[in-house]
Write a structure and sequence with these properties.
2 domains; Immunoglobulin-like; four-stranded antiparallel beta sheet; 10 strands; single chain; 2 helices; 172 residues; alpha+beta
């Protein structure tokens, strides 16, 4: 059996591969930047280099069109439910859930709490968040909506809930 800690050839191979990969990525990013600055790529671009100790690269923001024809999305793609970006933070005494709902009015949001999960529906957005614990107090949960972000705070309890409970919440 080979002891990889004594034979550093494997690590040299990995280091060599990583170096070649990074060089190739930098060349491709530089080619991209040249194509944008020479107007080979049409559109409105903002490209900024990142040059900090240990961090090299670019931040590129913009829009471009691949052909002369406008891009059309199928009608059903616009009508399908999308899953919003969601962050769940479990702390010692509570669970916090953040759901991004851009372009949604507070009155369009339906929020249901079920023992062990949170259901959010709003326009074309739909998401069910399964909680890591069922030991939560649904009656003391709060929700607020500001700048396109729904924040749900659910306190934890010591004892598990016996029967499944359900609550539709009003959003502040």
């Amino acid at each position: 059996m080979v002891d990889y800690y004594e034979d550093d050839e494997v690590f040299r191979d990995i280091s060599s591969f990583y170096k070649r990969l990074m060089e190739r990525m930098f060349r491709e990013i530089q080619d991209f930047e040249k194509a944008v600055s020479s107007r080979q790529l049409k559109g409105n671009w903002d490209i900024r280099p990142i040059n900090m100790p240990g961090v090299k690269g670019y931040v590129a923001r913009g829009q471009f069109q691949l052909s002369g024809a406008p891009i059309h999305f199928p009608k059903h793609a616009k009508e399908e439910d999308r899953e919003p970006l969601t962050d769940v933070f479990e702390e010692k005494e509570l669970v916090k859930i953040y759901v991004e709902l851009p372009g949604v009015e507070k009155s369009d949001i339906q929020l249901n709490l079920v023992s062990g999960s949170v259901e959010v529906r709003a326009k074309n957005f739909s998401k069910t968040v399964n909680l890591a614990t069922r030991n939560v107090d649904l009656e003391k949960a709060t929700a607020s909506y500001k700048n396109g972000v729904l924040e749900v705070t659910i306190p934890k309890i010591q004892k598990a809930v016996g029967d499944e409970k359900r609550r539709t919440m009003r959003i502040e």
